[in-house]
Design a protein that fits this description.
transmembrane helix
């Protein structure tokens, strides 16, 4: 019995060991203790610093942070889900170093998918390698898009589990669907999940049609019932994150309009169309799936001394040209996108096998995957195929919540790779007539190899090779405007020939097998070697040993400057602004301070509107003042006029990291009293009035809050309000006044969780000055407390606990049935 079990699991154990070896061989720097850090990883460390520090020293969890954009929930930054049992599964997998962990997830995930499609385990290893080493999978790891990488990895086994539920094993498929859906949702990249749902919709439609055709509608409905239950459990385990994010999303740039029309950038529902389609793949750029440098590769790339640029530098007498070429990056990309970290390359071999699949894979599979591939390819073109993009933005639910439409190539690449490996499955199937393989193989090689050959011979068919970035080269560097297009053409020609070679080699392998010159097992090994030879060098262009650093160097990336150290000596509560960075696209100041700026893809819509309408203007006004004054004292008038920045309590401004920061004596403080409150009829009027008032003395409030406003305000020169306690989830103020007052708090208004209390009793508060909190206060001496206690978090935790228990019961039930069946089988034997 033990020998039988070992024999059964031997291929899977071998696959795991192969994946471990491949992953560590690719990422050899981790063996030396080095680490990879991408831009987004560093940004996350900055934006999450306050939350991480608080969580490490407190029993509760920070659900709000003041470290960015004046304050925002931590739901999309550093969210804890205490009742999601899958966190323990993830902890086990994370025993590997980060980069190895991502690659292992890619490999194992696609391997599980192929097993669900009954692909031979040894061939499934080849397929897993082909999927995992697609260039995009490494590009996103290099830049730190970690949640995206993890979700892509779980996408494959999730789809495989749903397929298994429809086709074969109802209970096992349902349990695996719940697990992998739960893990995919937990990874927290909604856009990739959205594309996964699109793939599954196509699968469900195909299964429905064939169930009608084959009169198996009852089986289909049973499968749907099991999948719905599995989805409820998988989603339910993540209810904490999903419910809080749902609440938050309605108030973000991706939510509904606030009714503001004076700001053209914010008047629409969802994201702005230009913003959504900014990163649109060119229609001809789709050729990068076959020829990686079809459009030059990445925006910044290196050239060799033998390139046209290198030769020209040699001709001009530049010293050590080889060193110059190695240490400098050139704008090699010349496609339609504003910039790119690299192309989406899925492999010449995969492209060849995909075309072959059109001839030999069963229709039921093709009619599921081919329409999905076609649709997602066209959607990736975005503004270059606007009629379809408009249709989806306007009519398809949630599509207008996502940007970077080129990301749909993840779905297309998945489908193409799956069909490619299913073609290999048919090639090596015992029922396949080997002689009948030769014709479709030759046709497929002729189509794909012919395309590569055409561009190798006539690269100019792809375009002019001129990039808008070339215009920057003037004077002594003007020659680059002539040499760079030549180098881009050479890159295309070289990669086209490279792809042609791999197409011919893979076609040759199948031909040798069909002619009985190769055994299947040897062919598997040779295909694995060929796929690695095809994919790894391209992946290495974008993620290689140079991306890794010693841990101590990474830790030193975020070090306090002279200005930071001076500000950190001030232990009061305030906000700052760092003018030495891109204020609203850089999170580094948030590592040390409570920041007016920051970096996040889901800012509160009201804050973004304030940036568009006032903050950008006030910053421009402030920066222009620097060029006119001779000392900081002369900035007094300008600082006093910064009504919006002052109401956000901007006490410090860093204008030179190695100099003392500018101290702003006109910041409004943590809270203050106003003598007059004006009401606005709508968002436009509220925004307009905000630009007219002095926020130190007046406030503007929407008419919907009119019933809460005090009937009369009386001055009291001795009135006092001060912040006495600060924690991310709790703020306390001492208040003293002989008359009724209206206090404005320099805190972001977010009523989906922030509650106000006086004497332990909840009291109402209002939104003032478009996005701050304000509260009418009766005369007296007492404490005011704000607590962040979102119901979505507590309700989500309860649902997650119930769902986790249901999964455990499901696993226990499945285990019991397996044990019972094996016992009955043993008794019968």
């Amino acid at each position: 019995m033990n020998k039988t079990v070992l024999t059964k699991f031997a291929p899977h154990i071998a696959a795991f060991l192969v994946f471990v070896c491949i992953s560590f061989l690719y990422f050899t720097p981790v063996i030396e203790g080095k680490q990879l850090i991408g831009h987004d990883t560093e940004s996350w460390a900055c934006m999450a610093k306050e939350s991480v520090d608080y969580n490490a020293t407190h029993s509760d969890v920070a659900l709000w942070t003041n470290s960015m954009f004046g304050g925002m929930p931590t739901y999309q930054i550093a969210m804890s889900q205490p009742n999601n049992i899958l966190k323990f599964v993830d902890d086990v997998i994370r025993v590997f170093p980060n980069t190895v962990y991502y690659l292992m997830l890619y490999l194992i995930g696609f391997y599980i998918l192929l097993l669900a499609f009954r692909v031979n385990p040894w061939l499934a290893i080849v397929g897993a390698i082909a999927f995992a080493f697609a260039s995009y999978n490494f590009i996103i790891v290099a830049v730190g898009h970690n949640s995206k990488a993890i979700t892509i990895a779980y996408m494959a086994p999730l789809i495989g589990s749903v397929f298994m539920t429809f086709r074969r094993k109802l209970l096992l498929g349902g349990i695996l669907t719940a697990i992998f859906l739960g893990l995919a949702v937990r990874a927290n990249h909604v856009q990739i999940l959205y594309y996964t749902v699109i793939i599954l919709i196509f699968l469900a439609i195909a299964e429905f049609i064939y169930s009608l055709k084959e009169k198996e509608i009852t089986k289909f409905l049973k499968s749907c019932g099991v999948l719905l239950a599995a989805a409820a459990i998988g989603v339910g385990m993540n209810a904490t994150a999903l419910l809080t994010t749902y609440d938050y999303s309605k108030a973000t740039m991706r939510g509904d309009s606030n009714g503001l029309t004076v700001d053209a950038q914010s008047s629409q529902h969802g994201l702005n169309k230009d913003y959504i389609t900014q990163w649109s793949y060119g229609i001809d750029e789709t050729m990068t799936l076959l020829i990686p440098d079809f459009k030059g590769g990445a925006s910044g790339g290196t050239l060799t001394a033998d390139s046209e640029t290198g030769k020209k530098l040699t001709e001009l007498g530049a010293p050590d040209v080889a060193k110059i070429m190695k240490e400098n990056q050139f704008p090699l990309y010349w496609g339609d996108q504003p910039g790119t970290s690299g192309p989406v390359y899925i492999g010449a071999i995969v492209c060849f096998l995909f075309v072959l699949s059109l001839f030999i894979v069963d229709k039921r599979t093709k009619w599921w995957l081919l329409p999905m591939i076609a649709l997602t390819l066209m959607l990736s073109w975005g503004k270059n195929f606007m009629w379809l993009t408009d249709l989806f933005i306007n009519y398809v639910p949630l599509y207008n919540k996502f940007r970077t439409v080129s990301m749909t190539l993840v779905a297309a690449g998945f489908g193409i790779t799956l069909l490619a490996i299913l073609a290999l499955k048919e090639v090596f199937a015992e029922k396949t007539d080997k002689q009948k393989l030769i014709k479709p193989v030759l046709i497929s090689a002729g189509i794909v190899g012919g395309i590569a050959l055409i561009f190798a011979l006539i690269p100019s068919l792809s375009g002019s090779f001129i990039s808008p970035a070339d215009a920057q080269y003037q004077g002594n560097n003007a020659f680059l405007r002539e040499t760079l297009p030549l180098d881009r053409a050479a890159l295309l020609r070289s990669d086209a020939l490279r792809s042609l070679a791999f197409v011919l080699l893979s076609a040759g392998l199948i031909w040798l097998y069909a002619k009985n010159y190769l055994k299947a097992k040897l062919a598997y090994v040779l295909f694995a070697v060929l796929v690695l030879a095809d994919m790894v060098p391209v992946a290495k262009r974008y993620l290689n040993n140079d991306n890794f650093q010693r841990p101590r160097r990474i830790e030193n990336l975020i070090q306090p400057s002279t200005a930071d150290k001076i500000i950190l000596e001030d232990k009061s509560q305030f906000r700052m602004l760092d003018a030495t960075v891109d204020v609203f696209q850089n999170a580094s100041p948030s590592y040390f301070h409570k920041n007016i700026g920051g970096y996040h893809a889901a800012k509160l819509r009201r804050y973004q509107e304030l940036i568009n309408m006032y903050l950008t203007k006030e910053l421009t006004q402030l920066f222009s003042s620097f060029s006119r004054v001779k000392s900081t004292d002369q900035l007094s008038g300008t600082l006093d006029s910064l009504n919006v920045l002052n109401m956000l309590n901007m006490k410090y401004l860093i204008y030179n990291k190695e100099a003392a920061p500018l101290v702003n004596p006109y910041a409004n403080g943590n809270a203050w009293f106003v003598s007059k409150v004006r009401t606005a009829n709508d968002a436009n009027e509220e925004m307009k009035i905000l630009g007219e008032i002095n926020t130190k003395n007046e406030a503007v409030v929407d008419k919907s809050f009119a019933s809460v406003l005090p009937a009369k305000l009386s001055a009291d020169s001795s009135a006092h309000i001060a912040l006495t306690k600060y924690e991310p989830n709790q703020l306390k103020y001492s208040f003293s006044s002989k008359t009724d007052q209206m206090a404005v708090f320099s805190e972001i208004y977010y009523d989906k969780g922030w509650n106000a209390y006086i004497g332990g009793k909840q009291v109402p508060y209002v939104r003032a000055n478009y996005l701050l909190r304000a509260m009418p206060l009766k005369a007296g001496n007492y404490e005011i407390e704000f607590r962040f206690e979102p119901k979505s978090y507590s309700v989500g935790n309860t649902i997650a606990l119930i769902s986790s228990i249901l999964l455990i019961l499901g696993l226990a039930g499945f285990g019991f049935l397996q044990w019972k069946n094996s016992k009955q089988t043993a008794q019968q034997a």
